[in-house]
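ok so I'm stuck.
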Amino acid sequence: MNPVSEITKLRRDLFTKIARWALHHPLDAPFEMDISAMVKEMIPDGPARYRCCIHKERAIVEERIKIAVGLTPVNHPVTVISEACNGCSLNKYVVTDACQNCVAHPCRNSCPKKAISVIQNRAFIDQVSCVECGKCAKACPYNAIIEINRPCERACAIGAIKVDDSRKAIIDNELCVSCGLCVTVCPFGAITDLSQMLDVIVSLRVKEQPHVAVIAPAIAGQFGPKVSPEQIKTALQQLGFDDVVEAALGADIVSKLEAQEIMEHAAQTNVMTNSCCPAFAQAVRKKLPELQDKISTTLSPMRVAGQLVKNKYDGKVTTVFIGPCIAKKAEANQGDEIDLVLTFEELSAILSAKEIDLAGLPPTAMTGVTPNGRLFARAGGVSTAVRKHLGDISLNVMQVQGLGQCLAALKTAAKQTNDSFTFIECMACEGGCVGGPGTMVTPAVGTRAVEKHAGEGIILPK
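replied:
not stuck anymore, here's the structure
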């Protein structure tokens, strides 16, 4: 399992308490009435454990609860809890001992705010005046000025996270693609994503129409090595779902359609990317809009599987996608195929609140998908499945992970003028979907579990 930090423990404890309340209280009970008691249960009387005082700890937990249940209105899937942000009072640009006190002083001359002075044969930066433009670091011929990035800024490859005048993190919603990587790296847990866990529980309790869970193939191994996806299906049925469908069913269809796109457009263009990673697709649209026509027009496996379910029930069904990805919460709003989205972490909280012992459940069979559909969950799975449907067509394949690397690879490939066609498999998360921010295990563990679930002894082409 992933090493569990104090931040993760607090978040999962909070999710479980919210789920337990939602499962056992009357449907018309106002949640606001119980927030104070829930906060005190999580942060009991006594000395502060993490912050300056217990009052700040409780204020942060209260705000986190309100965001999780929708009582604090926010207009984006990923948001900063201002009270929780430490402000990271580090100095972004620092002069090191490598400073040579050169006569030209290019660092001082390049500073637009005159924030650099030379004292006792060494340059110093006035951090009050510094606006963190970085011109001094670029100008120094000895690389004596280093840049220290805040964890959230470093995690965001498209520059959607900045700091305000008080040095607290702010998210530019116009740039943010909801990849969730900043959520996982903030050492103070100040960045969070909106949860639809309460909506799912209430919807299952009201049960105005059938409910179908669409589970991502990355679910294999997420709840321990002794818990199979077939047992998770049994658990979901115990929660009230009428059926459970693998998103891998949609992946099988997507691989065929993307292969067809390649065959149809190979004469007009020289590169195409997958469409299954919503964070990557959004990053292209926002950072490289001139190349968005290189993204496959095929819907993602999540939406294709949701479409199949909606058609089966003539639209009179509630579909809930369960996966490792925060960006899927935003993608679900692009169509009507998926109604609600949960991460594996949120599902774990619901199962814990319901006191369901996964390891002790009997398995319920899941059929109808191919190994390649399930392997979409890990790096290389998409390109392998697509290539399987191309026959003798020559295809160059690139497998890239990380938003920054993906955008750079697409930009480079689009400039090439060779005769062969290039398919770029781009994933925002390292290792593919198994490395998503909503996972419970490491990418390596998740990859092995996905391959085992896809079929023992499968040999895939490189």
